[in-house]
Write a structure and sequence with these properties.
The structure holds three protein chains of three kinds.
Chain A lengths: L1 E23 L9 E10 L2 E8 L5 E24 L29 H11 L5 H15 L1 E2 L10 H7 L1 E2 L1 H14 L4 E8 L11 E9 L3 E6 L4 E2 L4 E7 L8 E6 L4 E12 L2
Parallel strand pairs in A: 5-6
Antiparallel strand pairs in A: 1-4, 1-12, 1-13, 2-4, 3-4, 7-8, 7-11, 8-9, 9-10
Chain B lengths: L9 E2 L2 E2 L4 H8 L3 H18 L18 E8 L1 H25 L4 H4 L5 H5 L21 E10 L2 E8 L6 H14 L1 H6 L8 H10 L12 E4 L8 H11 L2 E3 L4 E4 L2 E6 L2 E5 L1 E4 L22 H6 L4 E3 L10 H4 L2 H9 L6 E2 L3 E2 L3 H9 L4 E5 L8 E3 L5 H13 L4 E5 L5 E6 L2 E10 L1 E4 L3 E3 L4 E5 L13 E8 L3
Helix pairs in contact in B: 2-6, 3-12
Chain C lengths: L2 H31 L8 H11 L3 H8 L4 H10 L7 H14 L6 H19 L7 H22 L4 H29 L9 H13 L3 H8 L5 H10 L7 H19 L4 H15 L2 H7 L1 H24 L5
The chains are: A alpha+beta, B alpha+beta, C mainly alpha.
């Protein structure tokens, strides 16, 4: 599938700011399931800074914008050819070892409820891959997709207690549960192209990857109870949503920030 | 239980030859003169502004660390062994850091458990795969040593991040030379005043590849409220480099710049005296006001060097400490020159059992603690203190290690009544850049309270000048 | 040099100069209060002082009525008053500590000593301290610091930022002191030329340590015209506006030469200096002394802002 992406994020400030600095992880991952045909990332009026590929294989680019400014726009556009690898991250080069992803963070800390959920899902036995699938299904059952009830800092434990949430909450909960079972897990940010209407997600999407011995990293989207396939474009990874954020930025000044995002995906079947 | 302490000056009631002249010196010094000199030293310290403030203790913000005028002395032979051991350790620690952020050979070889490294709080995933200039992560390695006998030195802990106290090493010497010039004529003492220059050269030697011409080095301080601010400004002054705060720096076009009266000036090497967590709000703590937004992107893309490198802390963790001798064998193919103190990991169940049963005999430390806090000296603790500590260890065993109570050596120290033995340790500062350098000396800390084994300045410790005699 | 370092140096100088002015104001007030009252009694003079020093609102909120002892406390010791002598000295010392390495040992010693002695003064029984002791002590400390700067600091850009701080603060302070006398202390026109008027002028000159200098320079009776000339236009008077702006110009010129380029600050200083150079004392009175001083104070404030923007803020490109 060839997926086209047009993604613009604009930050507005209610006061004049002295400048802004951003760290962008907005580039499609390089692995057998994705081939970048065209890709461009621009910050309006920005100055491109250092760029590198980090230990997890993600490309990162620094940007800065000189003030005075009252908004910052990040414009992403491009085309990616995708292939369904049933979630397996094949041919991805990275140096961080899977064990590093056993560390818990605040949003992915497992409380008793998450640990119970993980253990009961795993109780049926089977290999790591089967257990991972059952975890993903269990989370989908326990947290119903509903936008607007959770926020950026909601933890996995809070989302489970609420029983509702969005893709970020599903991913956090899945990571927390996988770690309970000693399976390394991480947060993935990217895009999802929706084929049918009314599917439960937004185009800017997030899911989780679980490390399965023998297979490597496998993408699980608990929000849609499936593995990441040709509809998914993978951008970057991290311990949790904040760590894997595609845009991290800071503006100097006292203004309050609001954000507008528009994402348009299109696809042509080959 | 009386532990036989090694007295560095007297052995079998005889003065060891290296202290002979100092004995004559003290004999010839009447009490009044001593008091006068002590007051003079204090006035000098206060004048230069060398003070030490402990967070949250309140009281005098300009408190001095007590200075003891009685120097501590090493022979050339003793020092050479220490030097070999310290440099060896600094090499191994750096090899370890480069390895664990690279292929992790030592872990694949099964010599260190993966969990201890990769789930360590100090392991920075953000720098995995990055090779800093010259492959050095820890540029200033402070190694805390104690002595228990004529030939017996133990490493108490390694400090790979930003070991402090070197200004005292320099100032103690400066003040001793000013007050007792005759002593320096009579004894041939190796100089330490080359340290700032060596430090500057070490830092300049790890400038990033993108640096053109003479590298611009700066020291990054958390600010003038920090207890070590004096040291930061002292070192900046002696090295002739700018002392900057986070707000003085900004990131643009892949480089770090400092704000000067003549516009932005590019910075190549940052000797930072702030923790990883505060370096870059985009990468670590979003709430940090101290850091420089975007710094890590510049660092990772080779636009600036940071010393010590972010992530260096994984090597000086107290749980990793146990494995340093193993690192020396693994990376260098050598046997360790300096010994580790035997250490029980409370995270291991056998060790935990032993520790809980023998707490009165042991020193128990928090893995991430420093400055003598979160620490129990079993033989000197009350029953209640031990009971309270036992509960804490039992609750989170992985956070604690234990070591036998070492018979720390003593050196003569001026006290109210005259001269008395007091326990000491030693922190030399090893510099790692293009070369590995060690100035002959270090910071001797002394526990001024009779019988005390805690030398930390925050707990009533003082400092002494440390001499290495020339051949 | 780091902009922050320059900024701290600039403020060391401003705070020390401001501490001195506060002490001088206190002295003016104390002397005038010794006189038989002109209007509503001594309270009136003290009130004027508070207004002149820009601290009236803060004082009223804390103490209410202007009673001499309270005013002394407020203007000298009170850390809640950012312009008190104590606040200024502590601020200067703290700024000094931040840029310790940009100062010579002598300058640091002088700042440090001022701060240590201040703490001793604060521990003294208040009733055992005469106001004159406090003001003299302040003059001595500020002179020590200034002397140490002049005799020991390297003549680099840091020296110029110290110098600029002193010059701009002094220009502002002299204008304010003069304004107090003319506008605040003697608001009623029928007192002009009276014995009281004369006495107040003399007191002001004394407070500026310019009493004898004035007589040497002008001789004869003290008149408003002579005083205004002395404090505004006389290049011999160390506190005149002309001298202060001239000094600022000198430092700005040195900076532009050293840095190889000039900024808006140099241009603006040149305009102010040019105007003062052309001015006759009659022009000042034609405009109205108070109006002239108000405008001058604003211009000096603008110049300070330009110096800030060009060198101290770190925003320079």
């Amino acid at each position: 599938m060839i997926v086209t992406v047009n993604h613009t994020t604009t930050y507005h400030y209610d006061a004049v700011m002295r400048g802004a600095v951003q760290s962008l992880r907005l580039f499609p991952s390089q692995f057998d399931g994705q081939k970048t045909l065209e890709w461009s990332v621009e910050v309006a009026n920005g100055i491109r800074g250092g760029a590198f590929r980090d230990g997890a294989g993600d490309r990162v680019e620094g940007w800065s914008v000189r003030g005075p400014l009252s908004e910052v726009s990040v414009i992403v556009s491009g085309r990616v050819e995708t292939k369904d690898l049933t979630g397996v991250l094949r041919g991805h080069r990275e140096i961080v070892v899977p064990e590093a992803y056993l560390r818990e963070t605040t949003p992915t800390r497992a409380n008793v409820a998450l640990a119970d959920l993980a253990r009961s899902a795993a109780a049926g036995g089977g290999n790591a891959l089967e257990r991972a699938h059952r975890l993903s299904e269990a989370i989908a059952g326990a947290i119903v997709y509903r936008p607007g009830v959770t926020h950026a800092h909601t933890t996995a434990a809070e989302a489970l207690e609420l029983g509702e949430g969005v893709c970020q909450d599903h991913a956090h909960a899945l990571i927390a549960c996988a770690r309970v079972l000693d399976l390394p897990a991480r947060y993935i940010s990217g895009y999802l192209y929706a084929t049918e209407d009314g599917s439960m997600h937004e185009a800017a999407h997030a899911w989780a990857e679980i490390f399965v011995e023998g297979l490597g990293w496998v993408g699980f989207d608990a929000a849609n109870t499936c593995c990441s396939d040709e509809r998914y474009i993978r951008l970057g990874s991290g311990f949790d949503a904040q760590d894997a954020a595609p845009i991290r930025g800071i503006a100097q000044g006292i203004g309050a920030e609001t954000m507008d995002v528009t994402v348009a995906l299109g696809a042509t079947q080959q | 239980m009386a532990i036989p302490y090694f007295n560095e000056m007297y052995q079998n009631d005889q003065v060891r030859p290296l202290y002979a002249r100092l004995e004559d010196w003290t004999r010839a010094m009447p009490a009044e003169l001593r008091q006068m000199k002590q007051a003079e030293a204090e006035a000098l310290f206060r004048r230069i502004g060398i003070t030490f403030a402990v967070y949250g203790e309140g009281g005098d913000p300009d408190r001095l660390i007590p200075f003891d005028m009685f120097p501590r002395v090493f022979t050339q032979t003793e020092w050479r062994k220490l030097e070999r051991g310290i440099k060896q350790r600094a090499r191994a620690l750096n090899a370890f850091l480069l390895d664990v952020y690279g292929r992790g050979e030592i872990i694949r070889a099964g010599r260190i458990p993966a969990r201890l490294v990769y789930q360590n709080e100090a392991y920075e995933r953000a720098v995995a795969g990055f090779v800093p200039p010259r492959g050095v992560y820890s540029h200033i390695v402070g190694i805390d040593l104690v002595r228990t006998g004529p030939e017996d030195f133990f490493v108490l802990e390694d400090n790979c991040r930003t070991p402090s106290g070197v200004s005292y090493m320099l100032e103690n010497r400066e003040i001793m030379m000013r007050m007792f010039p005759a002593l320096f004529r009579e004894n041939r003492i190796e100089p330490v005043d080359g340290y700032p220059d060596l430090l500057r050269r070490t830092l300049a030697s790890v400038a990033p590849a993108k640096c053109e011409g003479e590298p611009t080095v700066v020291i990054l301080t958390p600010g003038h409220f920090n207890s070590a601010y004096y040291e930061h400004s002292f070192l900046a002054d002696l090295m002739g480099v700018e002392l900057v705060e986070g707000a003085d720096l900004f990131v643009e076009a892949g480089f770090v710049w400092m704000r000067t009266t003549q516009g932005p000036r590019r910075v190549d090497v940052i000797y930072r005296r702030i923790d990883d967590a505060f370096l870059d709000p985009l990468c670590f703590r979003p709430d940090s006001m101290l850091g420089i937004a975007g710094l890590m992107d510049v660092y990772r893309s080779g636009g600036v060097s940071i010393c010590s490198a972010p992530g260096a802390g994984v090597a000086d963790d107290k749980a990793i400490y146990t494995y340093v001798p193993e690192m020396i064998r693994f990376y260098l193919g050598e046997e360790p020159v300096l010994q580790n103190v035997p250490t029980w990991q409370c995270g291991k169940s056998d060790d935990l059992k032993y520790v809980l049963e023998n707490m009165t005999e042991l020193v128990v430390k928090e893995v991430h603690g420093s400055g003598g806090y979160g620490m129990l000296v079993g033989p000197r603790a009350t029953k209640a203190e031990i009971a309270a500590f036992r509960d804490r260890v039992a609750a989170k065993p992985g956070n604690y290690i234990a070591q036998p109570t070492l018979a720390l050596s003593t050196t003569p120290t001026f006290v109210e009544q005259g001269i008395a033995p007091r326990h000491v340790d030693l922190r030399p500062y090893c510099l790692v850049g293009e070369r590995i350098e060690l100035v002959p000396g270090g910071l001797t800390r002394v526990a001024l309270t009779e019988g005390s084994l805690v030398v930390n300045s925050s707990q009533g410790g003082g400092v002494k000048d440390t001499w290495v005699l020339a051949e | 040099m780091l902009s922050r370092t320059a900024d701290n140096l600039f403020w060391i100088a401003r705070y020390m100069e401001r501490a001195e002015t506060m002490a001088r104001l206190l002295e003016v007030g104390a002397r005038i209060a010794l006189m038989p009252s002109a209007g509503d009694g001594y309270r009136n003079e003290w009130d004027s002082l508070l207004r002149a020093s820009g601290t009236a609102a803060g004082f009223a909120a804390k103490y209410g009525d202007p009673v001499q002892r309270n005013i002394e406390s407020y203007l000298f010791f009170d850390r809640d008053n950012p312009s008190s002598v104590a606040s200024c000295i502590e601020q200067a010392r703290e700024n000094g500590r931040i840029v310790r390495t940009a100062l010579t040992t002598q300058v640091w010693d002088a700042l440090s000593t001022a701060s240590q002695e201040l703490r001793q003064l604060e521990r003294c029984e208040r009733s055992s301290l005469e106001l004159s002791q406090l003001t003299e002590w302040t003059m001595r400390q500020t002179a020590m610091v200034r002397g140490a700067i002049d005799t020991t600091q390297l003549r680099n850009d840091g020296y110029d930022f110290l110098g600029l701080g002193y010059a701009l603060e002094r220009a502002d302070n002299t204008a304010r002191l003069l304004d107090v006398k003319y506008y605040v202390l003697l608001p009623r026109v029928e007192f002009i030329g009276s014995g009281l008027d004369n006495y107040q002028w003399q007191t002001l000159l004394r407070a500026l340590s310019a009493h004898r200098a004035f007589h040497w320079a002008y001789g004869g009776d003290i008149t408003a015209g002579k005083i205004a000339h002395f404090l505004v236009l006389n290049p011999q008077c160390p506190r005149s506006l002309l001298t202060a702006i001239g000094a600022a110009m000198g430092h700005l010129d040195r900076l532009s030469r050293g840095y190889g380029h000039s900024t808006e600050a140099q241009a603006r200083a040149r305009v102010i200096l040019g105007e003062l150079g052309e001015l006759a004392v009659e022009d000042v009175f034609d405009e109205g002394l108070h109006e002239f001083l108000t405008r001058f104070i604003r211009e000096v404030g603008d110049l300070s802002g330009l110096v800030q923007g060009a060198y101290l803020s770190g925003e320079a490109r």
